[in-house]
Amino acid sequence: MIAGDGRIVHDQARLVDFDSPENNDWLALNQFTSVENRYSRRADVLVFLNGLPIAIIELKNPGDENATLNDAYHQSALRREGDTTVVYKTLS
């Protein structure tokens, strides 16, 4: 915005309210699918803070004795490598 004397003035936009966390809007979505061009990715859980994606959580079947935290990490890491969808690029 330009003030009456020609100076450029602005307000600061705060994306996260650290002083009053209750003012923030949190959303966790199960099986969130991001589609862009020919690429489609589905996160087990995608966490948004004030509309911004901040975390992807990879879940494993608790009944699968062979499922490990290491497997979840590698599956998530492999998804991010070379991924072109906006959500995954944002979180990488």
From TrEMBL:
The keyword Magnesium does not apply. Its EC number is 3.1.21.3. InterPro entries: Restrct_endonuc_type1_HsdR_N (IPR007409), Type-I_R_enzyme_R_subunit (IPR051268). GO terms for biological process: DNA restriction-modification system. GO terms for molecular function: ATP binding; DNA binding; type I site-specific deoxyribonuclease activity. Transmembrane segments: none annotated. It catalyses: Endonucleolytic cleavage of DNA to give random double-stranded fragments with terminal 5'-phosphates, ATP is simultaneously hydrolyzed. It holds the Pfam family HSDR_N. PANTHER family: TYPE I RESTRICTION ENZYME HINDI ENDONUCLEASE SUBUNIT (PTHR30195:SF15), TYPE I SITE-SPECIFIC DEOXYRIBONUCLEASE PROTEIN SUBUNIT M AND R (PTHR30195). Belongs to the HsdR family. This is type I site-specific deoxyribonuclease. The lineage of its organism: Bacteria, Bacillati, Cyanobacteriota, Cyanophyceae, Gloeobacterales.
